[in-house]
Amino acid sequence: MSIEPHGDEREILEGERVRIEHELSDLGLGESGSLSYDPNFADTSQVTAERGEAEVLASELKGTLTEVEDALIRLEDGTYGRCIKCQKEIGSERLAALPMTPLCITCSSLD
């Protein structure tokens, strides 16, 4: 049995996907899926540190983008709002705070 989405989850998730894609683009995420840099960019320790920070941020954004896309798939297949581990309903407050969450609060605390 699936749960009917409450409110505008699809719109929220689609907006989040667009926002993340823009952030990744602004970071310089190339077609290869990695960050691209100007070959004439100075390779000082500060630049290296900034590149490292950008790589971490891009990795986190890509992970969140995957979570958003997975939530959109769950909306399509009618399983959105159910925990992927225990199959119980995810609380509406949790979904409002984390619309892409695949886990109820109980299962999330066990990870």
Number of helices: 4
Radius of gyration: 18 Å
Give a count of the beta strands, DSSP E runs of length 2 or more.
0
Q: What class would the helix/strand composition place it in?
A: mainly alpha
The biggest beta sheet is recorded as: none
Helix content: 55-70%
Shape field: elongated
Order of helices and strands: HHHH
Query: Termini distance?
Result: 25 Å
Multimerization state: single chain
Average pLDDT, rounded to a whole number, is 83
For the record, the count of structural domains works out to 2
Taken as a percent bin, the fraction of beta residues is: under 5%
Low-confidence stretches: none
Describe the structure.
The protein is mostly helical and 111 residues long. It has 2 domains: 9-80; 82-111, no CATH class. It is built from 4 helices and no strands. It has helices at residues 9-27, 45-77, 92-97, 105-110. Helix 1 (9-27) runs antiparallel to helix 2. The longest helix is centred in the middle third of the chain and has 33 residues, at 45-77. The radius of gyration is 18 Å and the shape is elongated. The mean pLDDT is 83.
Describe this structure in a few short sentences.
One of its GO terms (molecular function) is zinc ion binding. The chain is mainly α and 111 residues long.
Please name the defining characteristics of this protein.
111 residues, mainly alpha, elongated, zinc, metal-binding
Task: Please outline the helices and strands.
Blueprint (H helix, E strand, L loop, with lengths): L8 H19 L17 H33 L14 H6 L7 H6 L1
Helix pairs in contact: 1-2
